[in-house]
Amino acid sequence: MFRKKNIWIALFLSIGFVAHSQQINRAMDSTVTTYGKVVVKGKEVKYSATTGKQPVWDDKGNIIAGLFYTYYQRTGIKDVSKRPLVISFNGGPGSASVWMHIAYTGPKILKIDDEGYPVQPYGIKDNPNTILDVADIVFVNPVNTGYSRAIDEMDDKTKSETFFGVNQDIQYLATWINSFVTRNNRWTSPKFLIGESYGTPRVSGLSLELQNSHWMYLNGVILVSPTTLGIERGTVPGAANFLPYYAAAAWFHKKLPADLQSKDLVEVLPEVEEYTINELTPALSKGGFLSNSERRQVASKISRYSGLSVEVILEHNLRIPKAFFWKELLRDEGYNIGRLDSRYLGIDKEAAGTRPDYSAELTSWLHSFTPAINYYFKNHLNYVTDLKYNMFGPVRPWDRSNNTTGYDLRQAMAQNPYLNVLVQAGYYDGGTDYFNSKYNMWQMDPSGKLKDRMDWKGYRSGHMMYLRNEDLKTANDDLRDFIAKSIPSEGMPAKYNRTN
Asked: Which Pfam family, any one of them, does this sequence belong to (predicted)?
Protein backbone atom coordinates (compact mmCIF):
# COMPACT_ATOMS: atom_id res chain seq x y z
CA MET A 1 0.00 0.00 0.00
CA PHE A 2 2.81 2.33 0.94
CA ARG A 3 4.61 1.51 -2.31
CA LYS A 4 1.47 2.15 -4.40
CA LYS A 5 0.99 5.46 -2.66
CA ASN A 6 4.56 6.45 -3.48
CA ILE A 7 4.01 5.50 -7.13
CA TRP A 8 0.92 7.70 -7.33
CA ILE A 9 2.75 10.58 -5.64
CA ALA A 10 5.66 10.23 -8.07
CA LEU A 11 3.27 10.12 -11.05
CA PHE A 12 1.41 13.18 -9.78
CA LEU A 13 4.65 15.08 -9.26
CA SER A 14 6.00 14.10 -12.68
CA ILE A 15 2.79 15.24 -14.36
CA GLY A 16 3.01 18.44 -12.36
CA PHE A 17 6.59 19.06 -13.44
CA VAL A 18 5.74 18.40 -17.11
CA ALA A 19 2.74 20.71 -16.94
CA HIS A 20 4.87 23.32 -15.20
CA SER A 21 7.53 23.04 -17.91
CA GLN A 22 4.96 23.33 -20.67
CA GLN A 23 3.32 26.28 -18.95
CA ILE A 24 6.64 28.09 -18.80
CA ASN A 25 7.60 27.27 -22.38
CA ARG A 26 4.20 28.17 -23.83
CA ALA A 27 4.24 31.73 -22.54
CA MET A 28 5.47 32.58 -26.01
CA ASP A 29 3.77 35.94 -26.43
CA SER A 30 3.85 38.02 -23.28
CA THR A 31 5.77 41.02 -21.99
CA VAL A 32 6.21 43.23 -18.96
CA THR A 33 7.14 46.92 -19.13
CA THR A 34 9.06 48.97 -16.59
CA TYR A 35 10.42 52.50 -16.67
CA GLY A 36 13.78 54.00 -15.87
CA LYS A 37 16.13 56.89 -16.42
CA VAL A 38 19.85 57.35 -16.94
CA VAL A 39 22.11 60.37 -17.26
CA VAL A 40 24.07 60.43 -20.52
CA LYS A 41 26.52 63.22 -21.25
CA GLY A 42 24.97 65.33 -18.52
CA LYS A 43 21.38 64.95 -19.72
CA GLU A 44 18.64 62.77 -18.24
CA VAL A 45 17.26 60.13 -20.59
CA LYS A 46 13.94 58.56 -19.59
CA TYR A 47 13.00 55.24 -21.14
CA SER A 48 10.65 52.28 -21.10
CA ALA A 49 11.99 48.73 -20.93
CA THR A 50 9.75 46.03 -22.40
CA THR A 51 10.93 42.47 -21.85
CA GLY A 52 9.34 39.14 -22.65
CA LYS A 53 8.70 36.94 -25.65
CA GLN A 54 7.50 37.42 -29.19
CA PRO A 55 6.63 34.28 -31.19
CA VAL A 56 8.28 32.73 -34.19
CA TRP A 57 5.61 31.42 -36.57
CA ASP A 58 5.89 28.75 -39.24
CA ASP A 59 4.49 29.14 -42.77
CA LYS A 60 1.07 27.99 -41.59
CA GLY A 61 0.85 30.55 -38.82
CA ASN A 62 1.60 28.14 -35.97
CA ILE A 63 3.82 29.28 -33.11
CA ILE A 64 7.02 27.23 -33.11
CA ALA A 65 9.16 29.25 -30.69
CA GLY A 66 9.22 32.28 -28.46
CA LEU A 67 12.18 34.64 -28.63
CA PHE A 68 13.06 36.48 -25.47
CA TYR A 69 13.95 40.12 -25.98
CA THR A 70 14.38 43.42 -24.14
CA TYR A 71 13.34 46.61 -25.90
CA TYR A 72 14.51 49.98 -24.60
CA GLN A 73 12.67 52.98 -25.99
CA ARG A 74 13.33 56.56 -25.04
CA THR A 75 10.08 58.12 -23.83
CA GLY A 76 8.79 61.50 -24.93
CA ILE A 77 9.75 61.02 -28.59
CA LYS A 78 6.95 62.37 -30.78
CA ASP A 79 8.27 61.32 -34.18
CA VAL A 80 9.84 57.85 -34.27
CA SER A 81 10.43 58.18 -38.02
CA LYS A 82 13.59 60.11 -37.13
CA ARG A 83 14.50 57.92 -34.16
CA PRO A 84 17.05 55.19 -34.99
CA LEU A 85 16.38 51.59 -33.94
CA VAL A 86 19.35 49.32 -33.17
CA ILE A 87 18.71 45.56 -33.22
CA SER A 88 21.38 43.75 -31.21
CA PHE A 89 22.62 40.16 -31.36
CA ASN A 90 25.45 38.31 -29.68
CA GLY A 91 27.01 35.19 -31.06
CA GLY A 92 28.27 31.77 -30.05
CA PRO A 93 26.37 30.43 -31.88
CA GLY A 94 24.33 29.61 -28.82
CA SER A 95 25.15 32.72 -26.79
CA ALA A 96 22.54 34.93 -25.16
CA SER A 97 22.42 38.66 -25.86
CA VAL A 98 23.62 39.30 -22.32
CA TRP A 99 27.08 40.62 -23.15
CA MET A 100 26.34 43.80 -25.08
CA HIS A 101 23.08 44.20 -23.17
CA ILE A 102 24.54 44.76 -19.72
CA ALA A 103 28.10 45.75 -20.58
CA TYR A 104 28.03 47.87 -23.74
CA THR A 105 25.08 49.74 -25.22
CA GLY A 106 22.21 49.28 -22.73
CA PRO A 107 21.20 51.73 -19.98
CA LYS A 108 22.52 49.45 -17.22
CA ILE A 109 25.88 47.73 -16.93
CA LEU A 110 27.22 45.14 -14.55
CA LYS A 111 29.55 46.04 -11.71
CA ILE A 112 33.14 45.27 -12.67
CA ASP A 113 36.43 47.09 -12.19
CA ASP A 114 37.77 49.55 -14.76
CA GLU A 115 39.63 46.80 -16.65
CA GLY A 116 36.65 44.41 -16.74
CA TYR A 117 37.41 42.00 -13.88
CA PRO A 118 34.71 40.68 -11.48
CA VAL A 119 34.05 42.43 -8.18
CA GLN A 120 31.70 41.61 -5.33
CA PRO A 121 29.02 42.31 -4.40
CA TYR A 122 27.66 41.54 -7.86
CA GLY A 123 25.10 43.86 -9.33
CA ILE A 124 24.03 46.48 -11.84
CA LYS A 125 24.70 50.20 -12.16
CA ASP A 126 23.78 52.99 -14.56
CA ASN A 127 25.63 53.15 -17.87
CA PRO A 128 26.49 56.81 -18.58
CA ASN A 129 27.80 55.75 -22.01
CA THR A 130 24.67 54.02 -23.33
CA ILE A 131 23.59 54.96 -26.85
CA LEU A 132 19.97 55.22 -25.67
CA ASP A 133 20.26 58.99 -25.93
CA VAL A 134 20.47 58.70 -29.73
CA ALA A 135 18.78 55.37 -30.54
CA ASP A 136 16.29 52.82 -29.23
CA ILE A 137 17.69 49.31 -28.74
CA VAL A 138 16.25 45.79 -28.80
CA PHE A 139 18.38 42.89 -27.55
CA VAL A 140 17.32 39.61 -29.16
CA ASN A 141 18.03 36.06 -27.96
CA PRO A 142 17.86 33.33 -30.65
CA VAL A 143 16.30 29.95 -29.86
CA ASN A 144 17.80 28.16 -26.82
CA THR A 145 19.67 31.27 -25.65
CA GLY A 146 18.59 33.37 -22.69
CA TYR A 147 14.95 32.45 -22.04
CA SER A 148 14.17 31.78 -25.71
CA ARG A 149 12.79 28.31 -26.44
CA ALA A 150 11.14 26.27 -29.17
CA ILE A 151 7.77 24.69 -28.40
CA ASP A 152 7.90 21.51 -26.27
CA GLU A 153 6.37 19.40 -29.04
CA MET A 154 9.28 20.01 -31.43
CA ASP A 155 11.84 17.20 -31.51
CA ASP A 156 15.59 17.79 -31.63
CA LYS A 157 15.93 16.97 -35.32
CA THR A 158 13.23 19.46 -36.30
CA LYS A 159 14.75 22.12 -34.05
CA SER A 160 18.12 21.62 -35.66
CA GLU A 161 16.72 21.82 -39.19
CA THR A 162 14.63 24.89 -38.36
CA PHE A 163 16.90 26.99 -36.17
CA PHE A 164 20.49 25.74 -35.86
CA GLY A 165 22.55 26.74 -38.87
CA VAL A 166 23.99 29.79 -40.63
CA ASN A 167 21.13 30.15 -43.07
CA GLN A 168 18.33 28.72 -40.90
CA ASP A 169 19.24 31.26 -38.23
CA ILE A 170 19.16 34.17 -40.67
CA GLN A 171 15.86 33.13 -42.23
CA TYR A 172 13.76 32.82 -39.08
CA LEU A 173 15.36 35.84 -37.38
CA ALA A 174 14.57 38.03 -40.39
CA THR A 175 10.92 37.00 -40.12
CA TRP A 176 10.98 37.73 -36.38
CA ILE A 177 12.48 41.18 -36.99
CA ASN A 178 9.76 41.93 -39.55
CA SER A 179 7.11 41.10 -36.95
CA PHE A 180 8.85 43.15 -34.26
CA VAL A 181 9.20 46.22 -36.48
CA THR A 182 5.55 45.95 -37.51
CA ARG A 183 4.26 45.44 -33.98
CA ASN A 184 6.21 48.40 -32.68
CA ASN A 185 5.48 50.71 -35.61
CA ARG A 186 9.14 51.19 -36.56
CA TRP A 187 9.02 50.75 -40.33
CA THR A 188 9.82 54.42 -40.96
CA SER A 189 12.70 54.55 -38.46
CA PRO A 190 16.36 54.39 -39.54
CA LYS A 191 17.40 50.82 -38.70
CA PHE A 192 20.73 49.35 -37.65
CA LEU A 193 21.95 45.85 -36.85
CA ILE A 194 24.79 45.21 -34.42
CA GLY A 195 26.32 41.78 -33.90
CA GLU A 196 29.25 40.53 -31.87
CA SER A 197 31.45 37.52 -32.70
CA TYR A 198 29.16 34.90 -34.34
CA GLY A 199 26.60 37.69 -34.31
CA THR A 200 28.61 39.25 -37.15
CA PRO A 201 27.79 36.62 -39.81
CA ARG A 202 24.26 36.69 -38.40
CA VAL A 203 23.74 40.41 -38.99
CA SER A 204 25.72 40.35 -42.25
CA GLY A 205 23.39 37.69 -43.64
CA LEU A 206 20.34 39.43 -42.20
CA SER A 207 21.19 42.63 -44.06
CA LEU A 208 20.57 40.93 -47.41
CA GLU A 209 17.77 38.63 -46.22
CA LEU A 210 15.82 41.59 -44.85
CA GLN A 211 16.21 43.42 -48.15
CA ASN A 212 15.47 40.54 -50.49
CA SER A 213 12.74 38.70 -48.56
CA HIS A 214 11.16 41.42 -46.40
CA TRP A 215 11.97 44.58 -48.41
CA MET A 216 13.42 46.15 -45.28
CA TYR A 217 16.40 48.42 -45.97
CA LEU A 218 18.95 49.27 -43.30
CA ASN A 219 21.09 52.31 -42.63
CA GLY A 220 23.95 50.52 -40.94
CA VAL A 221 25.52 47.23 -39.86
CA ILE A 222 28.00 47.16 -36.96
CA LEU A 223 30.38 44.21 -36.72
CA VAL A 224 31.92 43.80 -33.26
CA SER A 225 34.87 41.37 -33.20
CA PRO A 226 33.90 39.74 -36.51
CA THR A 227 34.49 36.12 -37.53
CA THR A 228 35.58 35.09 -41.04
CA LEU A 229 32.07 35.91 -42.39
CA GLY A 230 32.54 33.01 -44.78
CA ILE A 231 35.37 34.86 -46.54
CA GLU A 232 38.04 32.35 -47.52
CA ARG A 233 41.48 33.27 -46.16
CA GLY A 234 43.53 30.38 -47.46
CA THR A 235 46.28 28.52 -45.64
CA VAL A 236 49.00 31.13 -46.09
CA PRO A 237 47.08 34.27 -45.03
CA GLY A 238 45.42 32.10 -42.38
CA ALA A 239 48.84 31.51 -40.82
CA ALA A 240 50.46 34.88 -41.49
CA ASN A 241 47.61 37.13 -40.40
CA PHE A 242 47.89 36.16 -36.73
CA LEU A 243 51.25 37.89 -36.31
CA PRO A 244 49.91 41.43 -35.64
CA TYR A 245 47.73 40.02 -32.84
CA TYR A 246 50.72 38.11 -31.45
CA ALA A 247 52.65 41.39 -31.42
CA ALA A 248 49.85 43.17 -29.57
CA ALA A 249 49.63 40.48 -26.89
CA ALA A 250 53.40 40.31 -26.53
CA TRP A 251 53.59 44.11 -26.24
CA PHE A 252 50.98 44.09 -23.47
CA HIS A 253 52.95 41.48 -21.50
CA LYS A 254 56.26 43.28 -22.16
CA LYS A 255 57.79 40.45 -24.18
CA LEU A 256 58.98 42.46 -27.19
CA PRO A 257 62.53 43.77 -27.68
CA ALA A 258 63.31 47.03 -25.88
CA ASP A 259 63.13 49.22 -29.00
CA LEU A 260 59.60 48.01 -29.78
CA GLN A 261 58.51 47.89 -26.17
CA SER A 262 59.43 51.55 -25.72
CA LYS A 263 56.95 52.54 -28.45
CA ASP A 264 53.21 52.85 -28.02
CA LEU A 265 51.10 49.91 -29.21
CA VAL A 266 49.58 51.77 -32.15
CA GLU A 267 53.07 52.75 -33.30
CA VAL A 268 54.25 49.13 -33.26
CA LEU A 269 51.33 47.48 -35.03
CA PRO A 270 51.53 49.22 -38.44
CA GLU A 271 55.14 48.00 -38.75
CA VAL A 272 54.04 44.41 -38.02
CA GLU A 273 51.11 44.66 -40.41
CA GLU A 274 53.37 45.86 -43.22
CA TYR A 275 55.78 43.00 -42.60
CA THR A 276 52.90 40.50 -42.54
CA ILE A 277 51.54 41.60 -45.90
CA ASN A 278 54.71 42.38 -47.79
CA GLU A 279 57.24 39.84 -46.49
CA LEU A 280 55.76 37.10 -44.29
CA THR A 281 52.93 36.13 -46.63
CA PRO A 282 55.22 35.75 -49.69
CA ALA A 283 57.73 33.79 -47.59
CA LEU A 284 55.13 31.35 -46.28
CA SER A 285 53.85 30.92 -49.83
CA LYS A 286 57.14 29.16 -50.67
CA GLY A 287 56.40 26.50 -48.05
CA GLY A 288 59.09 23.84 -47.80
CA PHE A 289 61.04 25.37 -50.70
CA LEU A 290 62.03 28.39 -48.63
CA SER A 291 65.85 28.35 -48.33
CA ASN A 292 67.43 27.70 -44.95
CA SER A 293 68.84 31.20 -44.75
CA GLU A 294 65.45 32.74 -45.62
CA ARG A 295 63.74 30.44 -43.14
CA ARG A 296 66.00 31.56 -40.27
CA GLN A 297 65.64 35.19 -41.29
CA VAL A 298 61.83 34.91 -41.20
CA ALA A 299 61.95 33.05 -37.88
CA SER A 300 64.06 35.85 -36.38
CA LYS A 301 61.55 38.48 -37.53
CA ILE A 302 58.56 36.48 -36.21
CA SER A 303 60.43 36.11 -32.92
CA ARG A 304 61.02 39.85 -32.77
CA TYR A 305 57.32 40.58 -33.23
CA SER A 306 55.80 37.70 -31.21
CA GLY A 307 58.01 37.34 -28.14
CA LEU A 308 58.60 33.64 -28.87
CA SER A 309 62.00 32.04 -29.38
CA VAL A 310 63.49 31.45 -32.82
CA GLU A 311 63.87 27.73 -31.99
CA VAL A 312 60.17 27.31 -31.18
CA ILE A 313 59.18 29.14 -34.36
CA LEU A 314 61.42 26.94 -36.48
CA GLU A 315 60.02 23.83 -34.80
CA HIS A 316 56.57 24.95 -36.01
CA ASN A 317 57.74 25.61 -39.56
CA LEU A 318 57.15 29.36 -39.08
CA ARG A 319 53.42 28.80 -38.45
CA ILE A 320 52.51 29.28 -34.80
CA PRO A 321 49.08 27.93 -33.80
CA LYS A 322 47.15 30.39 -31.66
CA ALA A 323 46.48 27.86 -28.89
CA PHE A 324 50.22 27.20 -28.62
CA PHE A 325 50.93 30.95 -28.46
CA TRP A 326 48.50 31.34 -25.53
CA LYS A 327 50.37 28.58 -23.71
CA GLU A 328 53.91 29.54 -24.70
CA LEU A 329 54.18 33.31 -24.29
CA LEU A 330 54.31 33.27 -20.47
CA ARG A 331 55.20 29.60 -19.99
CA ASP A 332 58.44 30.49 -18.20
CA GLU A 333 56.45 32.55 -15.69
CA GLY A 334 53.90 29.79 -15.00
CA TYR A 335 50.91 31.42 -16.71
CA ASN A 336 48.87 31.14 -19.89
CA ILE A 337 47.03 34.04 -21.52
CA GLY A 338 43.39 34.36 -22.47
CA ARG A 339 42.02 33.41 -25.88
CA LEU A 340 39.41 36.13 -26.35
CA ASP A 341 41.29 38.71 -24.31
CA SER A 342 44.98 38.06 -23.88
CA ARG A 343 45.32 40.50 -21.01
CA TYR A 344 43.84 37.79 -18.76
CA LEU A 345 46.07 35.23 -17.05
CA GLY A 346 45.34 31.57 -16.28
CA ILE A 347 47.14 28.86 -14.31
CA ASP A 348 47.49 25.38 -15.79
CA LYS A 349 48.09 22.11 -14.00
CA GLU A 350 51.36 21.67 -15.87
CA ALA A 351 53.72 24.05 -17.63
CA ALA A 352 54.07 21.44 -20.38
CA GLY A 353 51.55 21.16 -23.19
CA THR A 354 50.41 22.86 -26.36
CA ARG A 355 47.29 24.70 -25.17
CA PRO A 356 45.85 26.18 -21.96
CA ASP A 357 43.67 24.04 -19.71
CA TYR A 358 40.82 26.58 -19.80
CA SER A 359 39.87 30.01 -21.12
CA ALA A 360 40.94 32.46 -18.43
CA GLU A 361 38.93 35.34 -19.86
CA LEU A 362 35.66 33.48 -20.41
CA THR A 363 35.57 32.05 -16.89
CA SER A 364 36.16 35.56 -15.57
CA TRP A 365 33.32 36.96 -17.67
CA LEU A 366 30.86 34.27 -16.64
CA HIS A 367 31.86 34.96 -13.04
CA SER A 368 30.55 38.52 -13.28
CA PHE A 369 27.83 38.37 -15.98
CA THR A 370 25.78 35.38 -14.80
CA PRO A 371 24.70 36.67 -11.37
CA ALA A 372 24.21 40.19 -12.75
CA ILE A 373 21.83 39.25 -15.58
CA ASN A 374 19.74 36.89 -13.45
CA TYR A 375 19.44 39.57 -10.78
CA TYR A 376 18.67 42.30 -13.30
CA PHE A 377 15.72 40.62 -15.01
CA LYS A 378 14.01 39.70 -11.78
CA ASN A 379 14.71 42.74 -9.65
CA HIS A 380 14.86 45.59 -12.16
CA LEU A 381 12.78 44.51 -15.15
CA ASN A 382 10.24 42.47 -13.14
CA TYR A 383 10.54 39.46 -15.42
CA VAL A 384 9.95 36.36 -13.30
CA THR A 385 10.28 32.81 -14.65
CA ASP A 386 11.48 29.41 -13.50
CA LEU A 387 13.27 28.85 -16.80
CA LYS A 388 17.05 28.69 -16.70
CA TYR A 389 18.73 31.66 -18.35
CA ASN A 390 21.06 30.10 -20.91
CA MET A 391 24.27 32.08 -21.11
CA PHE A 392 25.19 29.41 -23.68
CA GLY A 393 22.41 27.16 -24.93
CA PRO A 394 22.36 23.79 -26.75
CA VAL A 395 22.45 24.54 -30.49
CA ARG A 396 24.73 21.76 -31.72
CA PRO A 397 25.24 20.53 -34.33
CA TRP A 398 25.34 23.89 -36.08
CA ASP A 399 25.09 23.76 -39.87
CA ARG A 400 27.92 25.98 -41.14
CA SER A 401 27.50 25.10 -44.82
CA ASN A 402 26.95 27.75 -47.49
CA ASN A 403 28.22 30.62 -45.36
CA THR A 404 28.39 33.56 -47.76
CA THR A 405 27.48 36.19 -45.19
CA GLY A 406 30.39 38.58 -45.83
CA TYR A 407 29.57 38.67 -49.53
CA ASP A 408 25.87 38.96 -48.68
CA LEU A 409 26.67 42.13 -46.75
CA ARG A 410 28.57 43.50 -49.74
CA GLN A 411 25.60 42.72 -51.97
CA ALA A 412 23.23 44.45 -49.54
CA MET A 413 25.49 47.52 -49.59
CA ALA A 414 25.59 47.51 -53.39
CA GLN A 415 21.80 47.33 -53.57
CA ASN A 416 21.28 49.99 -50.88
CA PRO A 417 23.30 53.24 -51.21
CA TYR A 418 22.23 54.23 -47.67
CA LEU A 419 23.86 51.18 -46.05
CA ASN A 420 27.14 51.73 -44.17
CA VAL A 421 29.34 49.33 -42.17
CA LEU A 422 31.39 49.85 -39.00
CA VAL A 423 33.85 47.25 -37.70
CA GLN A 424 34.99 47.34 -34.06
CA ALA A 425 37.85 45.13 -32.87
CA GLY A 426 40.07 44.71 -29.81
CA TYR A 427 43.82 44.45 -30.32
CA TYR A 428 44.15 41.72 -27.67
CA ASP A 429 41.43 39.44 -29.05
CA GLY A 430 42.98 36.13 -30.12
CA GLY A 431 39.69 34.45 -31.05
CA THR A 432 38.60 36.88 -33.75
CA ASP A 433 41.79 38.86 -34.15
CA TYR A 434 41.83 42.50 -35.18
CA PHE A 435 44.03 42.16 -38.28
CA ASN A 436 41.76 39.55 -39.84
CA SER A 437 38.81 41.90 -39.29
CA LYS A 438 40.66 44.35 -41.53
CA TYR A 439 41.41 41.54 -43.98
CA ASN A 440 37.67 40.79 -44.15
CA MET A 441 36.95 44.34 -45.28
CA TRP A 442 39.70 44.26 -47.91
CA GLN A 443 38.39 41.00 -49.40
CA MET A 444 34.66 41.68 -49.06
CA ASP A 445 34.55 44.13 -51.93
CA PRO A 446 37.42 43.50 -54.39
CA SER A 447 36.27 46.41 -56.59
CA GLY A 448 37.01 48.93 -53.85
CA LYS A 449 33.90 50.90 -54.81
CA LEU A 450 32.27 50.45 -51.40
CA LYS A 451 35.31 51.09 -49.19
CA ASP A 452 34.27 54.68 -48.44
CA ARG A 453 31.17 53.28 -46.69
CA MET A 454 33.21 50.95 -44.46
CA ASP A 455 34.97 52.08 -41.31
CA TRP A 456 37.24 50.26 -38.83
CA LYS A 457 37.98 51.08 -35.18
CA GLY A 458 40.49 49.40 -32.87
CA TYR A 459 40.57 49.34 -29.06
CA ARG A 460 43.13 48.48 -26.37
CA SER A 461 41.28 45.48 -25.04
CA GLY A 462 39.93 42.16 -26.27
CA HIS A 463 36.89 40.48 -27.78
CA MET A 464 34.50 42.50 -25.61
CA MET A 465 36.43 45.75 -25.81
CA TYR A 466 33.71 47.57 -23.87
CA LEU A 467 34.60 45.79 -20.61
CA ARG A 468 37.51 48.17 -20.23
CA ASN A 469 35.98 51.40 -18.99
CA GLU A 470 38.05 53.67 -21.21
CA ASP A 471 37.07 51.68 -24.30
CA LEU A 472 33.42 51.55 -23.20
CA LYS A 473 33.21 55.30 -23.58
CA THR A 474 35.20 55.45 -26.82
CA ALA A 475 33.35 52.55 -28.48
CA ASN A 476 29.90 53.99 -27.66
CA ASP A 477 30.96 57.39 -28.96
CA ASP A 478 32.10 55.67 -32.16
CA LEU A 479 28.62 54.13 -32.42
CA ARG A 480 27.01 57.55 -31.96
CA ASP A 481 29.16 59.03 -34.71
CA PHE A 482 28.42 56.09 -37.03
CA ILE A 483 24.67 56.31 -36.47
CA ALA A 484 24.67 60.06 -37.14
CA LYS A 485 26.81 59.63 -40.27
CA SER A 486 24.58 56.84 -41.60
CA ILE A 487 21.35 58.82 -41.51
CA PRO A 488 21.05 60.82 -44.74
CA SER A 489 19.92 64.42 -44.73
CA GLU A 490 16.20 64.84 -45.27
CA GLY A 491 15.23 64.42 -48.92
CA MET A 492 18.58 62.93 -49.96
CA PRO A 493 17.83 60.19 -52.52
CA ALA A 494 19.30 56.70 -52.25
CA LYS A 495 21.07 56.53 -55.58
CA TYR A 496 24.48 56.40 -57.22
CA ASN A 497 25.78 59.32 -59.22
CA ARG A 498 28.12 58.83 -62.17
CA THR A 499 31.41 60.67 -61.96
CA ASN A 500 33.20 61.80 -65.11
From this structure: Peptidase_S10
